[in-house]
Specification:
By secondary structure, this protein is mainly α. It has five helices and no strands. It is flat, with a radius of gyration of 18 Å. The termini are far apart.
Length: about 110
């Protein structure tokens, strides 16, 4: 392992341990400073983001696969974008009125 990579993993493990000593409110507040888009998430979702961020960070640090954390951030940023657009949020939250039938498995064609 390269020295830079080893240093990054050591720093990641230290941060992971710090996150374990904070409650979800403290983590959510800390993350809001880094990711201001969390302000548009409902309170419950901000806490869920903090929990999922912490878990993804732990996983990424242990596996040295930072794409795990990047994916979590992308997904939550997309969720925040939906919450920021009232029309889109309403359209995606309302029950469907029509039945479009079964969804075929990926890779199959009609």
């Amino acid at each position: 392992m390269a020295v830079a990579s080893e240093g990054a993993v050591t720093a990641a493990r230290a941060m992971r341990n710090m996150l374990h000593h904070l409650d979800s409110t403290g983590i959510a507040e800390m993350l809001a400073e880094t990711f201001p888009w969390t302000d548009v998430l409902p309170e419950e979702d901000r806490h869920r983001f903090a929990t999922e961020f912490t878990r993804a960070f732990e996983t990424a640090a242990e596996l040295e696969r930072w794409n795990v954390l990047a994916q979590t951030i992308r997904e939550w940023r997309a969720t925040a974008a939906v919450h920021a657009d009232p029309e889109l949020h309403r359209a995606l939250s309302e029950p469907l009125e029509e039945d479009h039938g079964a969804v075929p498995p990926p890779g199959t064609e009609h």
